[in-house]
Design a protein that fits this description.
Pfam families: CopB (PF05275). The protein is mostly beta strands. 12% of the residues lie in helices and 52% in strands. It has 5 helices and 13 strands. It has a 12-stranded antiparallel β-barrel with strand order 1-2-3-4-5-6-7-8-10-11-12-13. The longest helix has 9 residues.
Length: 267
C-alpha cells in the first residue's frame, strides 16, 4: 500500500496549484495561451467569453437602382428609382431618389422625389428612418420632414412606409412593397406596389387630397450576375380623386398601362 501511494506524492503540489488557479488560467495557462492551440495573450486580448468580438462597426456602402427603365405606351418616358446607403450595422445615411424624364414633353423631369435619411435598427428586420425629402423637378418645389420604417416583412417582402410633413401644413404618406420570386437561380419575377396619399390638394404638384395614385409593376429579370440584371415587364398606374381630375384637365388620363424594358444594377 505504501509503495503505491508514495510515487504519486510528488504530483500533489502540482495538482493543488492547478486547482487554485483562476478558471481562465486553467483554460489558457499562465502565458494566456490555450493548451495546444498556439493562441497567445495578444491574440485573445479583448475577446468576448465566446471568442473574438465581431467587427460590426465597420463602414460599408451599398447602392441599387431598382427601376432603371423605359416605359412605352401613349407617350414614352424614362423612369428611375433607386437608393444608396453608407454606414455600419447601427448608424446609416440613406439616399433615395426617383423620377421620370419625358423627352417628348420638352425634356421635362417630373415626379422627382429625393430623400436624405438617417436610419437606425429598431428590431431584427426593421430600421427607423428620419430626415428630409425634397421634390425637385419641373413642378413647384416642396420640402418635407420625413419619418418612417423600412425593412423585411412577413413573407420576405421588402417594404417601406414613410410619413411626410411640409412647412405649409401639408402631410403625405407613401407605402412601397416589392418581392423577389426566384423561378430559377437567375430568373426572378418581381411584383411591386406603391401608393401615395396627401391631406390637401396641391395644384403646383398636380396631386389631390386623399389617395393620389397606385403604381404597380410586374418585372421579369435575368441575373447575368447579381449586380447586372436586364428585365422586361408591365407597369400600371391609376390616379384617384383630385389627382385624376387635374390630369384630365391637362389632357391626361386616370389610367396608365405601359410595357417596360430596363436594367437593374447595384454595387
Amino acid at each position: 500500500m505504501t509503495r503505491r501511494i508514495l510515487p504519486a506524492l510528488p504530483a500533489l503540489p502540482a495538482l493543488a496549484l492547478f486547482a487554485a488557479m483562476p478558471a481562465q488560467a486553467q483554460i489558457f495557462g499562465d502565458s494566456g495561451a490555450f493548451f495546444g492551440s498556439g493562441l497567445g495573450a495578444d491574440t485573445l486580448q479583448g475577446a468576448s467569453p465566446y471568442g473574438n468580438l465581431i467587427a460590426d462597426d465597420r463602414v460599408y456602402m451599398h447602392g441599387i437602382l431598382n427601376q432603371n427603365e423605359g416605359r412605352f405606351g401613349d407617350g414614352s418616358y424614362y423612369r428611375w428609382s433607386g437608393q444608396a446607403w453608407i454606414g455600419n450595422d447601427y448608424n446609416r445615411l440613406r439616399l433615395r431618389t426617383e423620377g421620370r424624364y419625358n423627352s417628348t414633353n420638352n425634356g421635362k423631369v417630373d415626379d422627382g422625389q429625393h430623400e436624405l435619411l438617417y436610419e437606425r435598427p429598431i428590431s431584427t428586420y426593421f430600421d427607423l428612418q428620419a430626415g428630409v425629402r425634397a421634390d425637385i423637378d419641373d413642378g413647384t418645389g416642396r420640402t418635407w420632414a420625413a419619418l418612417g420604417v423600412q425593412g423585411l416583412a412577413i413573407g420576405f417582402w421588402n417594404v417601406a412606409v414613410t410619413g411626410y410633413a411640409s412647412n405649409r401644413g401639408h402631410f403625405a404618406l407613401r407605402t412601397d412593397a416589392a418581392y423577389d420570386l426566384y423561378l430559377t437561380q437567375r430568373l426572378v419575377l418581381q411584383p411591386q406596389f406603391e401608393t401615395n396619399w396627401y391631406t390637401k390638394d396641391d395644384a403646383g404638384r398636380g396631386v389631390g387630397a386623399g389617395l393620389s395614385d397606385i403604381d404597380t409593376g410586374l418585372r421579369l429579370r435575368y441575373d447575368i450576375s447579381r449586380k447586372f440584371s436586364p428585365y422586361i415587364g408591365v407597369a400600371y398606374q391609376h390616379f384617384f380623386g383630385g389627382t385624376a381630375r387635374m390630369r384630365r384637365e391637362e389632357g391626361g388620363q386616370a389610367d396608365d398601362l405601359r410595357f417596360l424594358v430596363g436594367l437593374r444594377a447595384w454595387f
